[in-house]
């Protein structure tokens, strides 16, 4: 497998040649099991993040544990965004899913006294279902309608909560039952992140995922196979919104509060930025992006509002200059080596 | 009260139409959804304010300069950012959204918030029509709105650039083969859209004040009108503006101002369910397109 | 005529804006028949196919398939009933290898259960199907990315995608256009084999010579109207057809 890239800036007519590392060629076959080195080559990219994520809560201090918590939440939102993107829906309103989950969990805990172990799964499903039903009509249209509608609905919902004073109005609902222990909190969200990352990565790589991606590329061709495109899009939308709703429901119990901020633009923008910076289309890129951007924004807390300016610029720079994202770059370096050859 | 409500509803509708028409023009011609639209609107208002208060230029001159600068910014945005990602809907949406975000949040960070940030009315005068008070600025908005619509119609139907606009809007490939430079037309479409945002800002901002959150509001309103009217259809935008404008004003007067947003949201959801492409949408549903 | 036609099109009309793309089109199609649909460019052949497969809704008229009225149904329902079609402009998923392109039709509810769903099952079926349409297994053509395959293979891929649905009626929209004589000659046996299996086929073609050799019956369209119908060579003798073809060229 050789890919060549012409280097236009170079005057001496060289080109960069990319060649699969021998170990990659060998380990993509059954012989991978023949040596420890090759098994490690295959296993390391999967094991390091798993072990890393499971160890992190133990080594971090209280403050950074909280940061890890929000990293995981934003990574889940970014994964949800990425699944939608791979199915051809560009969401500008992850806050809708997040907020739906958060409010559902909050309402059922506050008014009906359901414990967190009931509200979190219930809110993931109900929140996902409500978001899907709201967005169902837009699925019939191609292009940017989905982006437009997802952008405005959470912003309008904020106004509606404010105006009608339902569910606590501007004050929100406080006194939500917290999760029993800090460790449970941490490992629940980290486990959910790892499960979502590897599970949905596998799903997108299966035949089902192939159909979803095919809908993005050429829905006509998928329709021509007797497949109901809307039904599949609705499924993808439900999966993505349920992930977002789970994150929201979880955060409600962590903050012991739910209110208008759950529909804030932050929950829409940061996941997109994470997915774009990390590299859309792999889910791992989205997670990596969250692990870079969220701690970065904690470090940059001092500059306040300028953070969002930086996210905005990040989005533009990455989408124009490095549209494939960081993860693809790392992946390439891992699997291939490069050399210059004279032309 | 009824006549007053109708009068204000008309003004409200024209404001909505003014806000949406630039976004719609850009999308209708080149298919670029300019999510930086609200930011351009606010940017032009701040520019006017700065020219007016810091350089102490007369208001009309300041307004004209800021409209021109905003128009130029639209063109630059296309040349340096959008051109590189042309045709990829994902990248276009995210790039314009990112630009808009950066502009608005930068103004917020720099502290441009408060009631002193506003633009003066052109003619400070008000009078009574059919027992309802109305000020000159609102009447001016209606006049400017009407003039702009007529001007746009004449422009797209009777000038060569306008005809090229329509050609590109109908079929980009055919237009290309007829020697119309689609990149130049797209640049113009984005910059004209930005210019329309600036004109709208100049005339509408004096009713309130300039603030970054207003930028998001403008984007929401423009998007809502376009979704209901149907993207790319000028007639649809005007009809949708009047539908929302009247609905909002009447709920405000007869029910409660809290409900105005719910009315808009309900209108969007109902229209999307019944006719997803909007009232006058040219964009066909999946099945109908080959 | 067969007592119960597989497909019956009756009084079909389609207007695009003010343009009449299809004007009062009626024909029957017997089981196992190969019907050729010809006509000058823009005569409404592809629109007729789009109407039958539901990609375009008819303004008026009925399409009866297997005794059921299918006009106005969405394409996925029609295709599930056993009508498969190819597209004139082939648009494969370029970044995928050819055999992965076959996964989409093999995922169709029509054939999903028959194919088996375990990991890799569909890949194996896809490779078999591709071999049938001439993707040489020994040369690993099926594993090549669709973006590097020549037009001839892309057309075969398109045909294989239609065959994968195990349809009763196959509609081939200009399958031969853009192919060399040798490529056409290698695809014709595949079509003949489909006929032997009892499939009903509608072919839209500009390559009249090749079509006349295999078609049972020809329908000639012009400006959306049927101007002639009959056996292969007879139709070309008709005055209306001569005028339509020569008049269009003159």
Based on the model shown, name its key terms.
heterotrimer; A: 343 residues; mainly alpha; ABC transporter involved in vitamin B12 uptake, BtuC; three-stranded antiparallel sheet; two-stranded antiparallel sheet; 5 strands; disordered N terminus; B: 290 residues; 11 helices; disordered C terminus
What does this structure look like?
By secondary structure, chain A is mainly α. Chain A has a single domain, classed as ABC transporter involved in vitamin B12 uptake, BtuC (Orthogonal Bundle). Chain A has 14 helices and five strands. In chain A, the strands form two sheets. Chain A has a three-stranded antiparallel β-sheet with strand order 1-2-5. The radius of gyration of chain A is 22 Å and the shape is globular. In chain A, 48% of the residues are buried. Chain B has helices at residues 2-30, 37-53, 59-80, 89-109, 136-158, 160-170, 172-177, 182-204, 212-229, 234-254, 260-274, and strands at 126-129, 132-135. Chain B has a two-stranded antiparallel sheet with strand order 1-2. In chain B, α1 (2-30) crosses α9 (212-229) and α2 (37-53) runs antiparallel to α3 (59-80). Chain C is an alpha/beta fold and 250 residues long. In chain C, α6 packs across α7. Chain B binds chain C through residues 287-288, 290, and chain C through 50, 54-57, 74-75.
Short description:
Chain A has 343 residues and is mainly alpha-helical. Chain A contains 14 helices and 5 strands.
Per-chain topology:
The complex is a heterotrimer of chains A (343), B (290) and C (250).
Chain A: E1 2-6, E2 14-20, H1 22-27, H2 36-59, H3 62-86, H4 94-112, H5 116-135, H6 145-164, E3 173-174, H7 182-205, H8 207-217, H9 219-223, H10 229-255, E4 257-258, H11 266-278, H12 284-299, H13 306-321, H14 325-335, E5 336-342
Antiparallel strand pairs in A: 1-2, 2-5, 3-4
Chain B: H1 2-30, H2 37-53, H3 59-80, H4 89-109, E1 126-129, E2 132-135, H5 136-158, H6 160-170, H7 172-177, H8 182-204, H9 212-229, H10 234-254, H11 260-274
Helix pairs in contact in B: 1-5, 1-8, 1-9, 1-10, 2-3, 2-4, 2-8, 2-9, 3-8, 4-9, 5-6, 6-8, 9-10, 10-11
Chain C: E1 7-16, E2 19-29, E3 34-38, H1 45-53, E4 60-65, E5 68-69, H2 75-80, E6 83-85, H3 98-101, H4 103-106, H5 112-115, H6 121-132, H7 151-164, E7 169-173, H8 181-196, E8 200-204, H9 208-214, E9 217-222, E10 225-230, H10 232-237, H11 239-249
Parallel strand pairs in C: 3-8, 3-9, 6-7, 7-8
Antiparallel strand pairs in C: 1-2, 1-4, 4-5, 9-10
Helix pairs in contact in C: 6-7
């Amino acid at each position: 497998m050789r890919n060549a890239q012409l280097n236009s800036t170079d005057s001496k007519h060289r080109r960069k040649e990319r060649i699969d590392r021998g170990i990659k060629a060998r380990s993509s076959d059954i012989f991978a099991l023949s040596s420890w080195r090759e098994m490690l080559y295959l296993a390391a990219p999967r094991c390091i993040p798993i072990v890393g994520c499971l160890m992190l809560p133990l080594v971090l201090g209280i403050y950074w544990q909280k940061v890890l918590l929000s990293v995981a939440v934003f990574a889940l939102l970014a994964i949800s965004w990425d699944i939608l993107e791979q199915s051809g829906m560009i969401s500008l309103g992850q806050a809708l899913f997040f907020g739906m989950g958060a409010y559902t969990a909050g309402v059922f805990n506050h008014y009906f006294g359901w414990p967190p172990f009931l509200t979190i799964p219930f809110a993931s499903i109900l929140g996902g279902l409500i978001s899907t039903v709201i967005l169902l009509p837009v699925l019939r249209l191609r292009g940017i309608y989905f982006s437009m509608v997802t952008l405005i609905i959470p912003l309008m919902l904020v106004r509606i909560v404010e105006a009608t004073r339902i569910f606590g109005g501007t004050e929100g609902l406080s006194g939500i039952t917290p999760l029993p222990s800090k460790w449970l909190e941490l490992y629940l969200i980290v486990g959910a992140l790892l499960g979502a990352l590897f599970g949905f990565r596998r799903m997108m790589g299966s035949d089902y995922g192939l159909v979803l991606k095919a809908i993005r590329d050429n829905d006509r061709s998928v329709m021509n196979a007797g497949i109901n495109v809307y039904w599949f899009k609705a499924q993808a939308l439900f999966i993505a919104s349920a992930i977002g709703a789970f994150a929201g429901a979880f955060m409600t119990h962590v903050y012991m509060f739910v209110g208008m901020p759950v529909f804030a633009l932050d929950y829409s923008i940061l996941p997109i930025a994470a997915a774009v910076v990390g590299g859309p289309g792999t889910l791992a890129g989205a997670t990596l992006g969250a692990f870079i951007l969220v701690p970065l924004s904690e470090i940059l807390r001092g500059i306040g509002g300028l953070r969002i300016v930086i996210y905005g610029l990040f989005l533009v720079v990455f989408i124009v200059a490095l549209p494939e994202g960081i993860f693809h770059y790392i992946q390439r370096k891992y699997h291939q080596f490069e050399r210059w050859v004279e032309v | 009260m009824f006549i007053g409500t109708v009068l204000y509803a008309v003004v409200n509708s024209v404001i909505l139409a003014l806000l949406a028409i630039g976004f719609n023009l850009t999308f209708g011609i080149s298919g670029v959804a300019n999510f930086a639209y609200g930011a351009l609107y606010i940017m032009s208002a701040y520019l006017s304010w700065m020219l007016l208060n810091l350089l102490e230029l007369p208001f009309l001159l300041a307004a004209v300069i800021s409209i021109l600068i905003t128009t130029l910014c639209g063109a630059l945005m296309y040349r340096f950012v959008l051109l590189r990602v042309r045709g990829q809907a994902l990248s276009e949406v995210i790039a314009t959204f990112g630009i808009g975000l950066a502009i608005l949040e930068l103004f917020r960070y720099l502290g441009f918030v408060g009631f002193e940030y506003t633009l003066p009315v052109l003619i400070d005068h008000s009078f009574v029509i059919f027992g309802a008070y109305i000020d000159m600025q609102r009447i001016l908005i209606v006049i400017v709105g009407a003039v702009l619509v007529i001007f746009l119609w004449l422009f797209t139907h009777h000038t060569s650039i306008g005809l090229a606009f329509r050609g590109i809007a109908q079929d980009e490939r055919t237009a290309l083969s007829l020697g119309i430079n689609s990149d130049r037309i797209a640049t113009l479409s984005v910059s004209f859209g930005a210019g329309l945002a600036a004109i709208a800002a100049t005339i509408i901002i004096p009713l309130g004040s300039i603030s970054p959150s207003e930028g998001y509001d403008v984007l929401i309103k423009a998007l809502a009108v376009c979704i209901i009217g149907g993207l790319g259809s000028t007639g649809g935008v005007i009809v949708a503006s009047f539908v929302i404008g009247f609905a909002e004003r009447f709920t405000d007067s007869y029910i409660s101002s809290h409900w105005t947003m719910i009315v808009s949201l309900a209108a969007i959801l109902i229209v999307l369910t019944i006719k997803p492409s909007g009232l006058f949408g040219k964009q066909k549903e999946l099945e109908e397109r080959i | 005529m067969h007592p119960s036609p597989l497909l019956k099109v009756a009084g079909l009309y389609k207007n695009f804006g003010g343009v009449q793309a299809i004007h009062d089109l009626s024909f029957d199609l017997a089981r196992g028949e190969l019907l050729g649909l010809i006509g000058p460019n823009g005569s409404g052949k592809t629109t007729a196919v789009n109407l039958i497969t539901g990609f375009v809704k008819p303004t008026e008229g009925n399409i009866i398939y297997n005794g059921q009225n299918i006009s106005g149904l969405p394409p996925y329902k029609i295709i599930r009933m056993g009508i498969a079609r190819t597209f004139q402009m082939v648009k494969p998923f370029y970044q995928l290898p050819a055999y992965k392109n076959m996964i989409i039709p093999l995922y169709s509810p029509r054939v999903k259960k028959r194919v088996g769903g375990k990991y890799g099952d569909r890949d194996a079926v896809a490779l078999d199907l591709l071999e049938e349409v001439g993707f040489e297994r020994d040369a690993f053509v099926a594993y090549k990315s669709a973006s590097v395959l020549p037009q001839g293979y892309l057309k075969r891929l398109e045909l294989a995608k239609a065959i994968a649905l195990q349809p009763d009626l196959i509609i081939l929209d200009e399958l031969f256009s853009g192919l060399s004589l040798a490529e056409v000659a290698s695809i014709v046996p595949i079509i003949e084999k489909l006929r032997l299996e009892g499939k009903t086929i509608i072919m839209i073609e500009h390559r009249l010579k090749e079509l006349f050799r295999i078609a049972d019956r020809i329908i000639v369209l012009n400006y959306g109207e049927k101007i002639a119908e009959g056996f292969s060579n007879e139709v070309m003798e008709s005055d209306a057809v001569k005028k339509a073809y020569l008049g269009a060229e003159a």
